[in-house]
Amino acid sequence: MSPPQPHQRRYPSAQHEGSAVSTVTGGDVLLRGIGLTRRWGGLTAVNQVTLDVLRGSVHAVIGTNGAGKSTLINLLSGEVPPSEGQVELLGQDATHWTQPRRARAGLGRSYQRNTIYPSFTVLENCRLAAQASTPGAWQWWQDASRCKASLDAAHAAAARAGLLGLLQQTAGLLSHGQKRQLEIAMCLATAPQVLLLDEPLAGMGAEETDRMLALLWELKTGHAILLVEHDMDAVFRVADVITVMVDGAVLASGTPDAVRNSAEVQAAYLGGH
To answer: How much is the average pLDDT of 40-59?
Structure first.
C-alpha cells in the first residue's frame, strides 16, 4: 500500500461509508475510552466521550479550540484522571494507572510543544527515551550511554522516523519538521503499540507536512494512532476515522466521507470544507 501523495486525498476502503456516526471495522482495539468525562468545578471539558482506536488505523480528533481535544488526550494518557468513565489499554482496565505505567504498557505520546533535549544529539535523545522505558537494562557500574539495548532501540526508532542520517546532529539545530519527527522517534524508542499525537503538523510547510503524513501512513501498520490536528486537508488525507468534538462532546464519528457529508459537522465546524 503506497503512502498518500502530496496534495492527494485518500479515502480508506477498509471501512464502510454511511452516517456520520458509524461502526468502524478493522484491527484490534488497542485503546478505548468509555464515557469519559472531566469536570473542573462547573466546567465540563470532556463530556461522555466514547471512542475506539484500532491497530492499523489513524483515528483523528478534530474540533475548534476549547472543544476538549487536548483534555481527552490527557485522560487517555493518564496525565489527568477522569471524573467519570473508563480507559482500556490493550484490553486491560487502565483507568487508574499512572501515566508512567501506561507508557510502560505500550502507550506513547507527543505534545503540542517540542519536548526534545535541544543540546543533545538525535541519537542521545532517542537513547534516553529508550533507556527511560526499560530501567535496569544496563548495570549500574557501566556507562549507560553504551547500553546496547538502548542504542539498538534508538537506532531503530531514528531509522523508522527518517532520521538515520542525522544521528549525530544536535537536536536544537534541526528544522521544525525534523524536531517533530524526532519526537515521534523518541516515542518509538519506547516500543509503544499506541501513539497519541497532539498536533504534530503545527507550524509545518507543505513539504514537511507531506513527509510527516507519509511517516504516519507507515507507522499505522502495527500501531494504533490517535491524531489531534487542526490541518483539515492533512486529516482528510491520512485519517481512517474522524471524531468531531464540540463543547467537550462527540458531535460525529465515522469515515472521512461520512464526516465530510454530515450537515451537522459542516454547520458546526467544517464550514463547507
So the answer is: 96
Residue 236: closest CA among 11, 22, 52: 11
Return the axis-axis angle of helices 176-188 and 148-160, rounded to nearest 10°: 130
Q: What is the pLDDT of residue 15?
A: 39
Instruction: Among 142, 166, 191, identify where a domain stops.
Output: 191
The overall average pLDDT reported for the chain is: 86
Final residue of a structural domain among 150, 174, 191: 191
| Residue 9: predicted pLDDT | 43
Q: What is the domain count for the chain?
A: 2
Q: How confident is the model at residue 139 (pLDDT cuts 50, 70, 90)?
A: low
The verdict on 94 and 1 lying in the same domain is: yes
Amino acid identity for residue 6 in this structure = P
Q: How far apart are CA 145 and CA 128, in angstroms?
A: 8
Beta strand ranges found along the chain (DSSP E): 29-40, 43-54, 57-62, 84-89, 92-93, 107-110, 194-198, 224-228, 241-246, 249-254
For residue 80, which amino acid is it?
V
Q: What is the CA radius of gyration of the chain?
A: 19
C-alpha cell at 174: 534541526
**pLDDT at res. 7:** 46
User: Residue 57 and residue 219: Cα distance in Å, rounded?
Assistant: 9
**Cβ neighbours, 10 Å, residue 92:** 10
The band of 140, judged by pLDDT with boundaries at 50, 70 and 90, is: low
